[in-house]
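Good day; I would like, with your permission, to put a structural problem before you. What I wish to show you is a protein chain and, alongside it, a tokenised description of its three-dimensional fold. Thank you for your consideration; the sequence and its tokens are set out here:
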Amino acid sequence: MTLNRNEQKLAELNQPKPWSGINAFRSDPLVVDIAASMPRPLRDDFEALGRYATSPEAQDLARMANEGVPKLRTHGPRGERLDVVEFHPAWHALMRRSMTSGLHASAWENIADERGRSHKARAIRFYLTAQLECGHLCPLTMTSASVAAISASPAVQKEWAPKILSRKYDSSNRPWMQKSSVTIGMGMTEKQGGTDVRANTSTAERVGEGIYRLNGHKWFMSAPMSDAFVMLAQTRDGLGCFLVPRLLEDGSANGLRFQRLKDKLGNRSNASSEVEFSDTFGFVLGTPDAGIRTILDMVTLTRLDCALASAGMMRASLAEAVHHVRGRKVSGKTLIAQPMMTRVLADMALDVAAASALSFRLAEAFDKARDSAEDAAYARIMTPVAKYWCCKIAPALIYEAMECLGGSGYVEERPIARHYREAPVNAIWEGSGNVMALDVLRVLTRGKDLFELLFQVISRDLGPSAKKTVDVLRAAMSLCERDEGAARMLVEQLALAAAAAELYRLGAGRIADAFLESRLAAGWRSTYGMLDSRFDSAYIVDLLYPPAT
């Protein structure tokens, strides 16, 4: 009764109930439609995860994991090196649940219900979990993606894959072979090189068959309590890629000395470190001169997760904003009934729907790339494009959602504040915007024929608008061949065209029409709320964010 009286009092004070306990899967018609053709056990799994992601208990775990940030202990009481990172118990609870869900493993498990759709099924789980908390997804992303790099060395894969794919979370500080499961981190960037990993100065000397001794430093090494790290170092033959265990078989340190943890803007529940290493053993992955090619297989998968996480955070933030404005009144009317507010929400809803659809379509391309030239071309070109666009629009969109809540949104008690601080990392991690644009230019230079296959996909789904849209894309391609600085224009146009095409393919006709006409046929705009009155803003909001029942 006390709770009911409190809620009644808040209602009298014009304060809506918190956005909590609203199933993140069931309340998202776009994702429900995407999952409709999947087997019932999968849909039940998504529904359970959707309930968990918005539950008060899970939201509390997310809050505590970000308030109780990781702590580095370099030394013990006797002066001995420890090099361990301590996490809040809430972090471990989040990790345990997400590993049980298979976010680190399901893409590789060949489960019957997910056969032929494993990347897409995992994408839905990842998207839903991102609406809860993204920091703990970082090690799970790297662990999942590491399988692609490790497969370059069958002997290493045979030993490590069973531990990587285990769904039993094991946070103990023991050698990897003694554990029930392992997680994998990543160390690529160095102070002098950053994204230019060819400038790396860390070295690796061969000491045995497939075994090297590494020396150097890493400016950013994510998830330092991982059981091993995929790292780059210079060999006598060129830049190599290595799997580096954190502990040796006897439990002693493998020469890794953590210097400090990064004090980051967001991603605070997750630890990122600077590390120096000497006489550190590692297993070479692939040939010792193929480091970039090997690690790019891993990076490609992490870029998909960046797009998915951005889409998930945007969805959660806008859902919270829509919920708030439905329950708050101004001048005798609910905020959502105010014409400008409705138009702002509808405008944002179009971008969230497009980003979500584009990310899931990319995951589907990963599933089909082996058997379809079109999907292989889609995966190659649209990975950097989707990563660029979804991650680039997220901070501004989440901020606009925050503004819908006003001062109430600008407090740490609400998840939206955490999403806002988290959003920039996806645009920066695994290649900033310019790096993504340069990657697209690389395809334009070396595999221009792939664009023709991509245009076939876009044309088939865009319908009557296809010819004009593809003509614009061809013009942008031609401009980029003469002017490298124009690459971002091509990338953004590709993202908008492919997102519109996917919305049409999914049958979201009126949503797709509004997105296409406002993004591809209208003039440039820099803020939300610019939708023309011919689009039914209330319809868009209610369709994509149905009122809770």
Observations:
- The chain has a mean pLDDT of 95.
- The chain has 18 helices and eleven strands.
- The two ends are 22 Å apart (CA to CA).
- Residues 238 and 457 are 38 Å apart (CA to CA).
